[in-house]
Design brief:
globular; alpha/beta; TIM Barrel; 41% helix
Length: 224
């Protein structure tokens, strides 16, 4: 079974400055050191696409992630995840429950979106949930309509539950150390990679920051 990702790239083809999403993801993954490839995962999150278009894009990303040794998660759509041979499915608040996924697709890993400690506690009770994205920890444009960022204290309290958490929202290399010190297993991001001129350099910088944070806080174990 794959390691918990330390860097989770969430897609948004509307945030790529006009570039093809596959080109951005390809450039980002190409910068991951070979030994760190398994520490990177991609979540295909394009909620406005219909099933046919989403499946076509998922097939392209499956080829890219497989070549790079990265995991692929599909947002909400278990059927699409199964159709393209994805590693897992990422569940939002209105998606199937982890238990539902376990019944229809027991081989799929499950990740979930969380915003509170209570949601993390609920996710931790499901044995097929491998990790949760938690946030937004810092301000980020895509999450402003849903309220203010939750902050590092909330991340710290949620991380105490024990389920691996990836901090989302306004992530920068400087903030990676803060997230790790608060108990996050890694970070998740959209614009920090999708929107920049050099996605590969951005991914490499974030991975390097995570590596440094692991050493700084003395976190060496990796869940498998």
């Amino acid at each position: 079974m794959r390691a918990i990702p330390r860097l989770y790239l969430v897609t948004d083809r509307h945030a790529t400055a006009g570039r093809a999403l596959t080109d951005v993801v390809r450039a980002a993954l190409a910068a991951a050191p070979h030994e760190a490839a398994g520490d990177v995962a991609v979540q295909l999150r394009e909620k406005d696409l219909d099933g046919r278009a989403l499946t076509a894009l998922a097939h392209e990303l499956r080829a890219l992630t497989r070549a790079a040794g990265a995991a692929l998660y599909i947002n909400d759509r278990v059927d699409v995840a199964l159709a393209v041979g994805a590693d897992g499915v990422h569940l939002g608040g209105r998606a199937l429950s982890p238990g539902d996924v376990a019944r229809v697709a027991p081989a799929l890993a499950v990740a979930v979106s969380t915003h509170t400690r209570a949601e993390v506690e609920a996710a931790a009770r499901s044995p097929n949930v491998r990790f949760a994205v938690f946030g937004p920890v810092w301000d980020t444009p895509s999450k402003r309509p849903y309220g203010p960022p939750v902050g590092l204290d909330a991340l710290r309290q949620a991380a105490a539950v024990g389920l691996p958490l990836l901090a989302l929202g306004g992530v920068t290399p400087v903030r990676v150390t803060e997230a790790r010190a608060a108990g996050a297993a890694g970070v998740a991001c959209i614009r920090a990679i999708c929107s920049v001129d050099d996605p590969g350099a951005a991914l490499a910088a974030l991975l390097q920051a995570v590596d440094g944070a692991l050493e700084t806080v003395g976190w060496h174990a990796r869940t498998t």
